[in-house]
Amino acid sequence: MRARSLFLVLFLLFCVSRAPGQEDAESTASSDKKTDPKALARKVEKTERGLEAARLERRIADLGARIEVAQAKAELFKAQRQLEEARLALEVFLKKDAPLQLDRAGVGVDRSLFQADQARDELAELQAMYDAEEFAEMTKELVLKRGRRELELAERDLELQKRSLETLKNDELAEKLREKEEKVREGEEGLAAAALRLERAELAAQLAVLKAEHQIADLELDLEEAREALAKAAPAAEPAEPREGAPAEAGAAGAETP
Fold first, then answer.
1. Is-contact 46 243, C-beta < 8 A?
2. Most buried by CB count within 10 Å: which residue of 99, 134, 199, 204?
3. How many structural domains compose the chain?
């Protein structure tokens, strides 16, 4: 324990004795750097290079920002065009395509209805004619069978046309309408997103250029301060010129004895 205590005491005395010298050395070194012409000249040169690079970076930032904004504007224009196309397609569908398809399907139903009525009337006429006159039983059955078959086909076709019309109304056209409306909604959302991306690109462009300009301004100020410091330190570093008629060395006069 005594040895340990002795060691701590010696260590503290060593630190106390070294601390002032170290602080003086660090202060002297820092002061030398602030007044050393070579160090100041290197700082000026380094700041000049940094300023040149910062100006190039500012141009690059400006060009990059302009590219981003141009791309965002192109996306916005594309989104506007897609929305216009989707709205036009919906309008054409509602005003032309859907009514035309319904009319065409309605005509099919009417034609099938007419054919069924015609087949029914013809069968009734044949039935009445064969009932009123005497014909061979085989001939009568063949003719009536053909008439009943035509009527059956006409009625089946009429039912099929009606089902097709209902399917067209309730399913096919409704699905197409939903698709057209969904395209419009997607176009509106895409346009809103493109507008936000353009606004973000414009703000990012302003921020990038602003940062670059601030960096240039800081470096210009640093360069001005470094040049001023170098100008102050340079005259003090130059040796004084000897006066005319003065001895070259201070101890020359005293070197000779009478």
1. no
2. 204
3. 1
